[in-house]
């Protein structure tokens, strides 16, 4: 799950949230309409509480305490291992592989290879020229185009300087193929969902669920089918990155100005004309936003897919982290960050440039500028440069490692903090969760999901939690859960505080905003590098990385929520003489509650994504099992953990997802 | 205008008193409830809609552009049963919703739109007027009834024929413009031609002419987002004009505009109508706009036409209290003509001396003439004196006192 998914725009006119909770109902009583409703609701709440208490007593008497009973588990790792063995044995003989999957994986490998060859043939000068000029053209010429072009130039220069040129090219080759495939797939799905209500209804829950699943959980099924290597990495990237494109295409098609569509019909346009001349052009901006998110998610996944043999920059980071070589990890992580910034700026600028201004009145516009770009790239390629010249590289790993050593010897307080945090918060939390009788955890999950959502989400959440127990990974999952909860608490406290500050101080927000933007575009993998440098390989470092990763989204949504509060309501309270404290707690925060709940939901999803990746740096628990399964080929162990992660994700999402998903 | 302002009423369920049961019976009889008693004093019973198409006895040999009979549009579950059932059609809108869950947006409407006239459908929001205009080209599929364009049945058209109708014969101007933001003004105007398959050079040339005609010359390369609301609606108007349609449909085109710009646009429409004489169906909720533009006005309420007539008839002889309420604040002297206010001349001196006005002159013009001359004014048409108006008759119009009482 990449943070970029949080920028999915909600349909513009947000329907006023119906007061779903007891507090909301209680407030409604004053508005005349619903005293009886509130009474009924309160009675329901009482009845629910009573039933809960009765169940608790009953459970304590009948089921006793302790963790998930061994008798209720079902081991799925043996059959999964068997399946894996079967795949390995039959990969060269079974018709399913010979006639279908093998073709797929060969095509994937060939595609990536050929793109890489092209990039290689362009030479460093050609690649840099192409990146810079395309950025310049896509951003709409002029001054903004210049800025974006400079960003591209800087990004590629640093990649070369750090000696990561080859790895960068490989990552870009993977990106080109996977983004092309994901965009195509997403557009097709989005077209279907945008034009047919039935497809939309069927797809929406699937896309929603896909967006809450941590990137980590996508890897294993593809490894099972394709084995480690480029095809597995490519296909899971495509699947992971396609949803935002599908979603936003559908949203754009659905959100098109109805008056314009009606005008097209009234002029006698047939279905095809309507699609090509009105619907698709009107959805163009949303589709470009979708492309931007797809690119950012693909980058995040391509980097993580190093675990399944994707190669490229991710591979460098992964091997560096495995040996805790912070300097090398930095050298590989920095290019990832720069590529993220370059891609984000270029696509975002292209999206902004659409339809906002009249066509430039210079001779340089439209096709002519593209022709110029192509000619310049061809000229640069004709120089026949090869890879980045060795003489122009600089190895930063030594100085970074020296700095890290200095930090670990002189700034011991970070490790002290980490130890204290583990001792006083993390361990007690984990122990408390484990101490809770297993059935009471299920009850808690059900009650919480019912309280914020509807019966369906309560059932889903409880079933997912029970599935974790059945899989036999109860203890590990609760360990992971405790890390998620600890990280979430820290994230929310910091995020809400920062959000309130940003909403109240416009100048602060202007300063913070670019920082948040940059942070949101970065793949989750790179966050692990600095925290390992500071905190060593412990659970705490995974949590810190999770907090840092989730914070931008929470701050952003909180700020936006507070900003969007009806100014008339704030003005009314000010005119009644409310202090700014009273305004905040009496008006702004209550009215921004939907946004705050969304922030909690996004926060929990993002935190989980990083906490499981934290298995790489000492996070242990489920994330570690996945990595172990991947690196040692223990498919059963890894898949079990992967499924448990998905279940945990479902539980956490449903427990924090406000109301039903229907009208979103 | 068709030159015959005496023609009145007639269509649909219009009629004094709006006797519900009677109209239903008429509708089922299939002849249309059209041959109804005239609503206005001094006007004769309208018969044009009831008569066979092509001969309404008032000098309109051509078939009407649109002939609508017994039209229903019902939204909701199993909408078909509502127009078919005498019991359900008799219900009020609220009762109907309670009984069936259906909303009848258009209820048993019938009227003719004559060639070259501006036909205004006027009503408050929710009266069904926007639905009505959309059923004319089946942007909304009507539930029952019949619509004919130039004598050709619209409801039986297949898809291709219907597209043909929309492409060439009727073009619409929308309240919210419905422009394509990613195209320039010129390409927006040319959009209808593009859909017809006209080549790029030709459609752009034709679009450029229309852009100039609506006063947007010089703005061809702008995007809609860079234009003011009034300019955007000019683009919408130009887009409709560019396909050279037989009839223009306007759906509250100026409601979203500021009052001053609205006035400009109304004058633009009047000018275009004067220059080209194109048939127009104009939907509005603004009574003043209806009176300014309309040759005839159909006043709608709850999906029915409560009165259909010239502005003068609507203001001068409202069909019921609802209409009367509606037109209460209208400055009557600016709508009523001297034709309604005049009385026969008393003797030859009155008939042959004194200043003259045309029968189509408004009462306020006559008031000015009377004030200047100090005596009665002759109403003269083609050198023949039709009657005279004096201060008493003019005051009666302004005061809203029926002419008979004055005479008595």
From TrEMBL, chain A:
* Domain ABC transmembrane type-1: residue ranges: 168-347, 477-656
Any one Gene Ontology MF annotation carried by this entry is:
amine transmembrane transporter activity
The answer on whether this UniProt entry bears the keyword tRNA-binding reads no
**What keywords appear on the UniProt entry?**
Cell membrane, Membrane, Transmembrane, Transmembrane helix, Transport
Stretches for region Disordered: 1-37
List residues traversing the bilayer.
45-65, 121-139, 146-165, 171-195, 216-242, 295-314, 326-343, 363-383, 455-474, 486-506, 526-551, 603-624, 636-655
Q: Does the keyword Cell membrane apply?
A: yes
Q: Name one GO cellular component term.
A: ATP-binding cassette (ABC) transporter complex
> Any one Gene Ontology biological process term?
choline transport
Where is it localised? Cell membrane; Membrane
Q: Extract the coiled-coil ranges from the record.
A: none
Q: How is the protein disposed in the membrane?
A: Multi-pass membrane protein
Pfam families for this protein: BPD_transp_1
InterPro entries attached to this UniProt entry:
MetI-like (IPR000515), MetI-like_sf (IPR035906)
The family assignment reads: Belongs to the binding-protein-dependent transport system permease family.
Protein name (record): ABC transporter permease subunit
UniProtKB/TrEMBL annotation, chain B:
Q: Which processes are annotated in GO (biological process)? A: glycine betaine transport; response to osmotic stress
Identify the taxonomic lineage of the organism of origin.
Answer: Bacteria, Bacillati, Actinomycetota, Actinomycetes, Kitasatosporales
Q: Where is the composition biased (Low complexity)?
A: 19-51
Xref: InterPro entries: AAA+_ATPase, ABC_osmolyte_uptake_ATP-bind, ABC_transporter-like_ATP-bd, ABC_transporter-like_CS, Gly-betaine_transp_ATP-bd, P-loop_NTPase
Please tell me one Gene Ontology term that the record gives under cellular component.
Answer: membrane
Region of interest: Disordered: 1-64
SMART domains recorded:
AAA (SM00382)
Instruction: Write the record's keywords in alphabetical order, separated by commas.
Output: ATP-binding, CBS domain, Nucleotide-binding, Transport
Q: What is the name listed in the Swiss-Prot or TrEMBL entry for this protein?
A: ATP-binding cassette domain-containing protein
Q: Which Gene3D superfamilies match?
A: P-loop containing nucleotide triphosphate hydrolases
> Any keyword Kinase?
no
Origin organism of this chain?
Answer: Streptomyces pacificus
